[in-house]
Design goal:
Layout: H1 3-14, E1 18-20, H2 21-27, H3 32-44, E2 48-51, E3 54-57
Antiparallel strand pairs: 1-3, 2-3
Length: 58
């Protein structure tokens, strides 16, 4: 798992298991474009599930 993916996973764990993409971008030092390029990999790996702008741990 890449460092950014680990950071997103840790953030979601501390956020009660899920958060919006805007919350993630606001609270972490990553840009929206970076987040949206990483989320498909994390979804394919089964780490997260995405419903619209809401991202949750699987």
């Amino acid at each position: 798992m890449a460092t950014t993916e680990a950071l997103i996973t840790l953030y979601l764990q501390t956020a009660g298991g899920g958060a919006t993409t805007d919350d993630i971008v606001d609270d972490l030092p990553i840009g929206k474009l970076t987040l949206h390029s990483i989320l498909p990999r994390m979804t394919d790996a089964g780490t997260v599930e995405r419903q619209g702008d809401y991202v949750s741990l699987q």
